[in-house]
Design brief:
- The complex is a heterodimer of chains A (387) and B (408).
- Chain A is mainly α and 387 residues long.
- Chain A has 17 helices and two strands.
- The radius of gyration of chain A is 22 Å and the shape is globular.
- Chain A has a two-stranded antiparallel sheet with strand order 1-2.
- Chain B is an alpha+beta fold and 408 residues long.
- Chain B has one domain: Cytochrome-c3 Hydrogenase, chain B.
- Chain B is 47% helix and 13% strand.
- Chain B contains 17 helices and eight strands.
- In chain B, the strands form three sheets. Chain B has a three-stranded antiparallel beta sheet with strand order 1-2-3.
- Chain B is globular, with a radius of gyration of 25 Å.
- The chains are: A mainly alpha (387), B alpha+beta (408).
- At the A-B interface, helix 8, helix 13 and helix 17 of A face helix 4, helix 5, helix 7 and helix 16 of B.
Chain lengths: 387, 408
């Protein structure tokens, strides 16, 4: 199977990988939107969507559990967006209006390619990361491409040719650009630490995880513990970058109705929606890789030693199989990503929303100085500890 | 000879040579998530700062005052439901007391106590809604749904009492439409007991929440003088430091028997208005408990006022005199003496006043409604200037208005 895949022309491989990403991210993003409705319902002490069930599922054992979990609602919602009329208001700049949702999707999907999402043990017992494109510029590629996402919001706000979207677009551009700075600065200590002075460096995310899976106390410590401030700044900036409450200025439904997507409807709107969740997934994945040890189950328990322990305890060689180890590591990683996404939802349904100027003040006057101080402190520390 | 200027349009540039800036006009509403119904704010923005805000009201105007002139006094009761539709029971009571004042009619103590209980339950329901909607306005959805759960419990009680959840039409001139059902007061007591901890829980989500205080403290400050000058009433007035509560200052319906405190704010900002509403709900629970504890027996309508209150149905079917009385009331309406009265009650939104002019007979000659929401909104042009667009939403939420009442 693997040999067959690698025997294919590179072009076909690339297309297959791309399709795999879309086929993975689209349903997961949609499932996250469903999860959001369920999580919000549980937080708000209500059942949430629990009625939808297709007629031919009625009576099948287990279907009622899925019904109560709102699984079918997901399909109903998705189908609704496909079959709804596509409204195209007369006053919009049509070309850019249609272009904006696509531009929202592109960075969201592109960044996934450089995110490693698991690892497997090769026959020699080495941990090999699984990712679509193991590029050395890793995190840089993510930041570079993700920052293009702001154009979709600006374009949507401007092309809508209406006042509320316009204000939303203005807020979006200001907010996203300001938080990108602190976001980038906050992860720099991690990479400085990973690439000790004098070594040939790499910005690959796989390398960060590799670093957190060393044996010993310091080797196995997640960066969440060694760099809590970085993690906190990164998390806050992530909220702002993905337009999640309390930083959802571009939308802020209370004052700007829908912000940049006020004039959008049906499938074009759902593209924005999916892009938001896709961004969240990528952001959570990066957070899990950088600060939560990637595919290592627990701090100080790297994947390789976990598999060895399982092998020793059960006496089965199955655990060392590349496929089993791969699936296990992906499961661990996905669980961490989902937990981070749950954290996003938890915060969203708990706290109110900031005001636009407060968001800017936090970005420029709190997070940016903090992240610079953090960077300087860790640079000095790394110089003395590793240099 | 005039010289030729190299930049003929330079006069339109300002001193720093920057771009000329323009103000943007933004129409907020009548269909907007935060204008709580159909208020429209015609705003002028300098960037995100509001430089002018004009409330445009009237989108929900139904001509209630004119409608009142064409129907008997009791027929107008359902229209009062639709004034402040978040507290119909309190509106019913205020209207009934106004007309009873015209008729110089005293209702029995039991009726008064029932009305007090229902009005205070309505106050809790209305403040819960105001709190929840304020929560949404600043982005706290969960607060809204928590408070709606409590309102649902209240609706169940209302339904049991009046037969309707929303449009209760409970009061009649000279009484209430029916006595309280058996065991209802116990259920109200049980509701109050479980409500207080939940109220504290809901308030604790906001009161010390840094984001919430950032959004409300110092926002929409209304000074004591302004509050009085603009005719604010209710929690909005008390939040500005004026301890005017008609239940204390001009007691009606036996409010003087109950022991409760008037919540008064100090700064008059959006946060104070939120705090005052929270405290008023606690006080309402106190009043309800006292009223239930000493609920008097006896009739729940003014039995002697034969030209005003309809007799019990079983008597209508068996006795001649009551049949005639019922017939006259249905065809002619309750007979009122000529005269003019004004009565205002402390409603959840403020002082709801009814000015009734009668020339005798079964219909009012003129009925004027003083809607607290309408007067409270009059301060918007003053309080919104200088605020940001998001602050306008906080201010609107904290003023807690109802357009059904404002537009009448």
């Amino acid at each position: 199977m693997a040999n067959f895949f690698f025997g294919l022309p590179l072009m076909v491989q690339g297309i297959a990988k791309g399709l795999a990403v879309i086929l993975f991210i689209f349903p997961v993003a949609a499932a996250c939107s469903m999860a959001e409705r369920k999580v919000s319902a549980w937080i708000q002490r209500r059942p949430g969507p629990n009625r939808t069930i297709p007629p031919f599922f009625v009576g099948i054992p287990g279907a009622s559990i899925l019904q109560r979990l709102g699984i079918f609602q997901l399909a109903a919602d998705g189908g609704k967006f496909f079959f709804k009329e596509e409204p195209l208001p007369n006053h919009v700049h049509k070309f850019y209006f249609i272009l904006a949702p696509f531009i929202a999707m592109i960075p969201a999907f592109t960044t996934v390619t450089v995110v490693p999402f698991g690892a497997y043990l090769d026959p020699e017992g080495k941990v090999i990361p699984i990712m679509l494109a193991n590029v050395d510029i890793g995190i840089l590629a993510i930041f570079a491409v993700a920052s293009l996402g702001v154009y979709s919001l600006i374009l949507a706000g401007w092309a809508s040719n209406s006042k509320y979207p316009f204000l939303g677009g203005v807020r979006a551009s200001a907010q996203l650009i300001s938080y990108e700075l602190s976001m980038t600065l906050s992860v720099l200590p991690v990479f400085l630490w990973v690439n000790e002075p004098g070594s040939s460096g790499s910005l690959s995310l796989a390398r960060v995880v590799e670093f957190q899976s060393h044996a010993g106390f310091w080797g196995g410590t997640w960066f969440l513990f060694t760099m809590p401030l970085s993690a906190a700044i990164f998390m806050i900036a992530l909220f702002a970058e993905t337009n999640r409450q309390p930083f959802d200025m571009p939308e802020s439904e209370a004052d700007l109705v829908g912000g940049f997507h006020t004039e959008y409807g049906a499938f074009k709107w759902s593209l924005f929606f999916v892009a938001e969740y896709a961004n969240m997934i990528v952001g959570s994945a990066v957070f899990a890789l950088l600060f939560l040890g990637g595919w290592n189950l627990l701090p100080w328990l790297p994947l390789s030693s976990l598999l060895e322990d399982l092998h020793r305890l059960t006496g089965s060689a199955l655990w060392l199989n590349p496929l089993v180890s791969g699936v296990l590591s992906i499961a661990i990683f996905v669980a961490k990503v989902l937990f981070t996404i749950f954290f996003f939802m938890w915060v969203r349904w708990t706290v109110p929303r900031f005001r636009y100027d407060q968001v800017m003040r936090i970005g420029w006057k709190v997070l940016l100085p903090l992240s610079i101080a953090n960077l300087v402190a860790y640079t000095v520390g790394i110089y003395f500890l590793q240099g | 000879m005039p010289v030729e200027h190299i930049f003929p349009d330079s006069a339109s540039r300002n001193a720093q040579g920057e771009f000329e800036t323009e103000k943007m006009s933004l129409s907020m509403g009548p269909s907007h998530p935060s204008t709580h119904g159909v208020l429209r704010l015609q705003m002028e923005l300098d960037g995100e700062i509001v430089t002018k805000a004009d409330p445009v009201v009237g989108y929900l105007h139904r001509g209630d005052e004119k409608i009142a002139e064409n129907m008997t006094y009791n027929q107008f009761v359902p229209y009062t439901d639709r004034l402040d539709y978040l507290a119909p029971l309190a509106n019913n009571m205020a209207y009934a007391i106004a007309v009873e004042k015209l008729a110089k009619l005293e209702v029995p103590a039991r009726c008064q106590a029932i009305r007090v209980i229902t009005a205070e339950l309505a106050r809790i329901s209305a403040h819960m809604m105001g709190l929840g909607a304020f929560g949404i306005d600043v982005g706290a959805w969960t607060v809204f749904l928590y408070s709606f759960t409590e309102r649902e419990k209240l609706y169940k009680l209302f339904e049991e009492l009046t037969g309707a959840r929303f449009t209760t039409s409970y009061s009649r001139i000279g009484g209430v439409s029916r006595d309280i059902p058996a065991g209802w007061t116990d259920r109200v007591n049980a509701f109050c007991d479980q409500f207080l901890p939940i109220l504290e829980e809901i308030l604790s989500l906001l009161t010390r929440n840094r984001i919430f205080t950032d959004r409300t403290v110092g926002i929409g400050v209304i000074s004591r003088e302004d509050a009085v000058n603009f005719g604010l009433t209710g929690p909005n007035l008390r939040a500005s430091g004026v301890p005017l509560d008609l239940r204390k200052d001009k007691p009606y319906s036996g409010y003087e028997q109950y022991d409760f405190d008037v919540a008064v704010g100090t700064k008059g900002d959006a946060y104070d208005r939120y705090l005052v509403r929270g405290e008023e709900m606690r006080q309402s629970v106190r009043i309800i408990k006292q009223a239930i504890a000493k609920l008097p027996g006896g009739k729940w309508y003014a039995e002697d006022a034969r030209k005003i209150f309809a007799p019990p149905k079983e008597k209508v079917l068996t006795s001649m005199e009551e049949l005639i009385q019922n017939f006259m009331l249905v065809t002619e309406g309750p007979q009122m003496p000529a005269g003019e009265v004004y009565f205002e009650a402390e409603n959840p939104k403020g002082a709801l006043g009814f000015y009734v002019v009668s020339k005798g007979g079964g219909v009012p000659y003129r009925l004027k409604i003083r809607a607290p929401s309408f007067c409270n909104l009059s301060i918007l042009p003053k309080v919104c200037v200088g605020a940001m667009v998001s602050d306008v939403v906080s201010i609107l939420g904290s003023l807690d208005f109802v357009m059904g009442e404002c537009d009448r």
